[in-house]
Amino acid sequence: MNRSEYLLTCLAEEANEVGQGVAKALRFGLAETEPGQPSSNAERVVAEVSDLLGVYLILRDEGVLPPIDFRPQSLSEIKSRKLEKIEHFMQFSIEREALQES
């Protein structure tokens, strides 16, 4: 395993930790603080997303992954495209009665 592969493994681990944190927040609530932990589930999810972003930035800076345009206009476009996809598949789930409309 070389450095790039090691860092990509770290990126995958951080992505999994984001997923684990989200799953705990869904089970126990965003405001819940696990005994012995100083942070709420919401704060822990944000910390894991931050770690994920940190590893991505290392990989970007080392030329392993291409850059993301973090300018506000570009981020707004990225968000809009993703929201459009999410809304499409949410409607699909509603039609199949897998998701309840609020």
Structural write-up:
By secondary structure, the chain is mostly helical. The chain has two domains: 1-68, no CATH class; 69-102. The protein contains three helices and no strands. It starts with a helix and ends in a 7-residue tail after the last helix.
| C-alpha Rg (nearest Å) | 17 Å
* Number of DSSP-assigned strands: 0
Q: Helicity, in percent?
A: 55-70%
Query: How confident is the prediction overall: mean pLDDT?
Result: 96
Dominant shape = globular
* SS element count, helices: 3
Number of spatially distinct domains: 2
Please summarize the sheet with the most strands: none
Task: Determine the strand fraction and express it as a percent band.
Answer: under 5%
- Pick out the low-confidence regions: none
Element-by-element helix/strand order: HHH
Protein traits:
102 residues, 70% helix, globular
Write a compact overview of the structure shown.
The protein is mostly helical and 102 residues long.
Compile the SSE list and pairings:
Elements: H1 3-28, H2 41-61, H3 72-95
